[in-house]
Amino acid sequence: MYVLHPITVHFPIALLLVSTLFTFLALRQMRGAWETSAYHCLLVGWFAGLVAVLTGIFDAARHLTGPDALYTNELIGRVNAHAFTSIAALLVYGLALLRRRRRPDLLEDAEARRGYLRLHVLGAALLMVGGWLGGYLVYVAGLGVR
Hints:
By secondary structure, the chain is an all-alpha fold. The protein has one domain (about 5-140). It has helices at about 5-10, 10-30, 30-65, 75-100, 110-140. Helix 2 runs antiparallel to helix 5. The longest helix is centred in the first third of the chain and has 33 residues, at about 30-65. The mean pLDDT is about 90.
């Protein structure tokens, strides 16, 4: 059976990071189009990220369990770190999405804006660490390609 997870991760990573970029551009240029685009990237990226997490759980269970699994505790630890950071990123971006949906004028209030921007920055950092760990699992450890 073909590995599903690598196919589903690229769009959510790109969309969520672009959402963060567009949010900062909206603040810098004070144009509503950037903020609208940031919101749509956040919305679609979050749902695509949910699909990526589900396929990741499925693929990890398939590769790391059963009689043919010859993986070490170190590799399983890295898989768990990848899963933790990626799920944490999805949760953080989910909180940002929830805040934005509840308050469409969020960027106009200084206090609410700071919390929203912190969520975006934290989510982007977690997403990059999780993506790096995923790349390590494929390109260094060979998970899913052997």
